[in-house]
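Recall the central idea of this unit: under ordinary conditions, the amino acid sequence of a chain determines the structure it adopts. In this exercise we apply that idea directly, starting from the sequence alone.
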Amino acid sequence: MANNLLKKSYQHKDLKEIPFNHLWNTKGVFTTIRLTGSTANFIHLKEHLRNLNNSLKKLNINFAFTQKKFEILVKNKFKNNINYNHLLRIAVNNKIISIDLRKRVNPNKFFKGLLMNYQRTQPTIKNLNYKKIFQFLKPLSLKSEEIILYKNNLILEGATTNLIFVKNKKLYLPKKNYYFGITLKFIIKHTKRKIMKTNIYLQKINEFDEILLVGSGKGVVALNNIPQLRWKNKGHVIYKELQELYNSNIER
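Accordingly, the structure predicted from this sequence is:
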């Protein structure tokens, strides 16, 4: 399994397998789940399925990817005694379920941020309209660079991550127009730090000491700099703290 990556598609109506279709740029949603350990530990599985199904409702797609369907279509395909460090993508549109597995690229601890003036369509949903995002990501080193999306001078999210801004050891999140991911929800729930939502203006970015990227693929990593804004990281205190918080959850 670890060497032969999984790619499967199924019909809604009878869960019958059909030729694989990645479903990108169709009307639908997806979620990406991290796998670790020797027994295929699906990190935050229930939360991922809940978010996926809530997003399907918002798109008026009358289908739910339940725990039972997950066990039938996904879980029984994973063997034990394999050292998993993978990412599983589950995508659903109005007719098809697609699942695919890829090896997780271990990210660097510190990233360079590259600004892009773009807001995803229906940004509060992790929808499949990713043509522009893929274009932005294509020339990047995904181990060490991330696209930072902004619109109307407001920073929103990373192309593949949520953003946490740190000032005076307090955590700040953008107010709106981004997808509130599972990793971000976990950190917000378990950190003891004060958290506030505010507009993150491009011209005020230098007020922040740290900027963190969080998500299923990257875990918790830190931005080292954003050259276009001449912003540079001023410390690693909160990065180390939240990375330890996240890693303790992964290792349980």
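The chain has two domains: 7-103, 110-250.
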